[in-house]
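ArsR family transcriptional regulator
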Amino acid sequence: MAGTDDETLDDLPPSAKLVFKVLEYNGTLTQKGIVEESMLSARTVRYALERLERIGLVEEDVYFADARQNIYELTPQAAEAIENSEAIAD
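Structure:
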């Protein structure tokens, strides 16, 4: 699901940015792991992940330890988003 919108990381709500940062710092996590690390509600995390997936910054895969869950990780495109966000902040 590559980002077809012109939306960027900077355009996302704070909750989506927090989920992005949690994945950046912790690496690959399940949705439950993201909920625990971010202290956001499961519904908020689910919405944030949908937004991040839509613009191609996060990808979802099967969690083989428990196939009922999915695992989320940043895409290679996310590194560009990190660099662009830091360049804007400077």
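The first strand starts at residue 29 and ends at 30.
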